[in-house]
Amino acid sequence: MKIALLSDIHANLRALDACMEHAAAQGVQRFAVLGDLVGYGAQPAQVMRRVRELAQGGAIVLKGNHDALAVAPFDQAGTMDAGGAAWTRAQLEPADLDFLAGLPLTVTDGAAFLVHASADAPQRWLYVDSGHRAEASLHAACADTRVRYVFGGHVHQQTLYFRGASQKLLRFEPTAGVTIPVPPHRHWIATVGSVGQPRDGDTDAMYAMFDAARAELTFHRVAYDHLAAAADVRAAGLPEDFAKRLEQGL
Fold it and tell me: What pTM does this model have?
């Protein structure tokens, strides 16, 4: 089964639609949304509608830190993120907020462990942004001996680590569109990047496709109208920095 791994949509409907269309062309059979459906972007209600439709069709959906913040925006009163979260909350229906509040932090699906941030403390929203943090997350997830793969988001970049024959964790640099064999005799941990707010200097949206039957992982980049998405942010009256991030991929 091919599963599209989407994370950090951040209320960017244009990017989400582009990734979903791309995944359909790749033969996707299921979706998993790894958190941060909302926050920063201008279309939280529309993104929520799309993701709830996916959930009704059998998609896995996890909670991210910005989803939790939209449910309770005053937990970080005075911060820029909290200001955006208060605006986001006002755009959502009570059913959307209930949906966000009820999302799990982690899901184990066959040999895959799915989490927004880090498996060792998912509620703390730790960034898996180094070999040390990848090791801690992988070790925690693999307490369940069924787990061979850990997939997360949160860092807005695409990374892949695996445990080699020496049991040392090694980093592999993925290339967009190039399929990587990920045999289950090893353990693997990946961050799938951000659909709605890339931060690696490239404005193209990110997601990954995992083919469990063939034990293959492919990271994708998808062009979309990021300038229109930035204009949407400005039209909504959100902070200018949120728009510049989309224009610059930072």
Answer: 0.94
